[in-house]
Structure formats: C-alpha cells, structure tokens
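Dear Dr. V.,

Thank you for agreeing to look over these. As mentioned in my earlier message, I'm a first-year student in the group and I'm still getting used to reading structure tokens, so any feedback on how I've presented them would be very welcome. I ran two proteins. I've put each sequence directly above its structure. The first is here:
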Amino acid sequence: MIQEWELLNPEGRGIAKPVEFEGRILALEGKTVVLRWNGKPNGDIFLNRIAELLIEKVKNIKVIKAYEVAPETSMISHGIEKSGQIAKTLLSFNPDIVIAAQAD
C-alpha cells in the first residue's frame, strides 16, 4: 500500500502594515509619560520608582500611572481585541511616551 502525505505549513500568515513613527523624543521636559503595568507581581513597584525618579529629575513632566487611573489596563491581554482596548485607553491620556513593565 502506498501512503500519501500532504505537507501543510502550520505558521499563520500575517499582514504586515508599515508603521510611521513621530520620531525620537530627545527630552522629557514638558512631556506626558504614561506608565503601564500588566498586573504581574512587583511591576507596579518598579513603575512607582520610575515615576518618583522622573518627577524628581525632570522639570515640568506629567506622569500618569495608568494602573491607578484606569485599573482595567492592569492585565495581561490575551488577544488583539483586548490589547486594542488597552491601547485606546492609554492613548486617551495623550501621552508623548508610554513606559510599560512586567515583573515576577
């Protein structure tokens, strides 16, 4: 008996779309920084320290802790839809930069 096999490629095919960036931020003075935590243990401790240092060392900076003002963003997103919702919430704060952290 002759056995026939059909070889399938299990990798998904994504559609790559070009992304344009605004450019580098050369200074943080006068900027809005949003801190995003995914809810893993100790990530908030790390970001709280980052916030302290930014406020201490950078003049006229606005630091927003998304995990405090929008606690629904403090989670691991397991899908593109939830990731999109979190991104929209973060963008609603009009950040110049977002710093995200996870920890264990």
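The second protein is here, in the same arrangement:
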Amino acid sequence: MSIVTITLAEAVQKLYDHRHGNTGHAFSVTFIKRTSGEARTMNARFGVRVHLKGGTLPYLPKEHNLMGCFDLKLTPEGYRMINLETITGLKMEGVEYVVKG
C-alpha cells in the first residue's frame, strides 16, 4: 500500500468523490471526535440503507462539517458522522493518505 500526503481539503474531496463513485466500497478514516477530543478510526461504507428506521435528522450534517457513513464494526446501529474538520488519515482504494496542514 502506498502512502500519500494530502491536505485536509483534498481529504474531504476524496471522501465526497468516494461517496458518489464507490458507494459500496469500504474505506477507513481517522479523525478527532468533537465530543471527547479523542482520535477515532472507523472502517466504514457509504450507501448502507438496510438498518434505517425512518425519520429525518434534526440538522443538516453538511452545515456542521459532518458526513454520515455506516461504521462496519457497530452493526446494526452503525450510522455515524465523520468530523470533516479534523481528518488525520484515510485508507481507500489501496492507498493510505496522511493529512497534513
């Protein structure tokens, strides 16, 4: 696996591109949680709908720099948010990205 250094803006763009182009493909993301300040690494996927219970969120994730995904380790309550402001690393499509700056 190759390691590439990218900026935070590039990391966020890679997540958006991955969400729209490779919905079923798993990826890994590391970021700092807003609630506790601890680092969190998730193995996740976009586009998982099987465990949805209906309803809507009381906020728009994009307005809070969040992106929803499905954490593969927490089935069936695995829907989580990625803090797009504090991403430190990504692994997707055979490439490991380290976020600097």
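From my reading of the second output: The CA atoms of residues 55 and 91 lie 31 Å apart. The longest strand covers residues 39-45. Does that match how you would interpret it?

Kind regards,
E.
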